[in-house]
Amino acid sequence: MNNKISERIDWQLIFYLLVFGIVSCISIWSAQSSGQYGGNFVSKQIFWYVIGTGIIAVMTIFDTDRYRKLTWYLYGVGNFSLLVLWLSPAKIAPVINGQKSWFRLPGDITIQPSEFMKVLFILALSKVIADHHKKYSEKTIQTDFQLLFKIGLTLALPLFLIMQQPDLGTSLVFLAITAGMIIVSGISWKIVLPIYGLVAAIGVTAIALVLKAPKFLQETFGVAPYQLGRIYSWLDPLNYQTSEGYHLTKSIRAIGSGMLTGKVNTDEGIGNRQVYIPESHTDFIFSVIGEEFGFIGTSFVVSLFFLLIYHLIKISLGTNKDFNVYICSGVVSMIAFHVLQNIGMTIQLVPITGIPLPFISYGGSSLMANMFAMGIIFSIRFHHKNYMFNSTKDLE
């Protein structure tokens, strides 16, 4: 049975995105008042939200079966764009902050292909896992290792190309997406737990070597001094507050000075922050929220992300296609890691990486990619009613 169009639209998700848009514009308006840049980032962010809304509207029209059929073409286009970016001259792909991650288009517009590749990668992994389970209805240790190998192959090419930029933050997002989707892929925990345990052990060992044997890392693995400095400044930011720890110490002071209700309740009002943080409209937007609106404001933002993730999980549990379940899982993994990493780095929980806060940080590529992902979610929700009363679950 088909329900009315209005009943098939996910109004709750629309509400969340609307609130995110309002929070984003208010926060960016406060951030740009610091005077680091002369442009009006709020109007640009509104423009990207309007474009993103159009992307969602178009993508909702098509069922995810269409996206499944186009997955490998889209995956190929995404990898090709990363390859072209790697090989392009500085005039087309300039090095910004030590990274060659953006195409520069006429009109001073920049596009970051890796942001869109995240979503295309989720589609590719979803197809790999769904097709594998369709082929092997009976699970064995051997088939689980085969699936793990396929997932690794799908990850290898985009991860390699992104590391050439080099962009460690985005690479970590790809690894987080992969880790999240492996958990729901049905691979035996006898395989998954030892692998995750090994990864955790490698991480702990790497930090220990940074602290105890930095020369070994430099001589053996070619680790640069500035990379070691990021770890040192993370663990002891006050001793590095004039260099690598500058952003972190400023962020902690900004969030701490906001206290319970923030400085918006003072006589000076919103937009008169006292702690200057470079690039606060992008990666450190959460620090702006903390200073302006205090613990109450930051708690509201965290709760909003929790509600969004919870809603996406409900959609994944309610869909009747395995392919859709894996897509939802990948999107949840992507957003959750972005939120944990971005907020965590502003309060010294994790080292600083250039990862934006979804739907709130300024950035056209980041916002378009997230809206692209939401468009697929809207499609899942919109077309789900067509199969709602089937007596059996479509395992494809």
Automatic annotation (TrEMBL):
Entry's Gene Ontology molecular function annotations: lipid-linked peptidoglycan transporter activity
Superkingdom of origin organism: Bacteria
Coiled coil: none
Subcellular location: Membrane
Keywords: Cell shape, Membrane, Transmembrane, Transmembrane helix
Primary localization: membrane
Gene Ontology cellular-component terms listed: cell division site; plasma membrane
Gene Ontology terms describing biological process: cell division; regulation of cell shape
Membrane topology: Multi-pass membrane protein
Segments passing through the bilayer: 12-31, 46-62, 74-96, 145-162, 168-184, 191-211, 293-313, 325-347, 359-380
Pfam families reported for this sequence: FTSW_RODA_SPOVE
Matches recorded under PANTHER family: CELL CYCLE PROTEIN, PEPTIDOGLYCAN GLYCOSYLTRANSFERASE MRDB
Annotated protein name in UniProt: Rod shape-determining protein RodA
Organism expressing this protein natively: Bacillus solimangrovi
Lineage: Bacteria, Bacillati, Bacillota, Bacilli, Bacillales
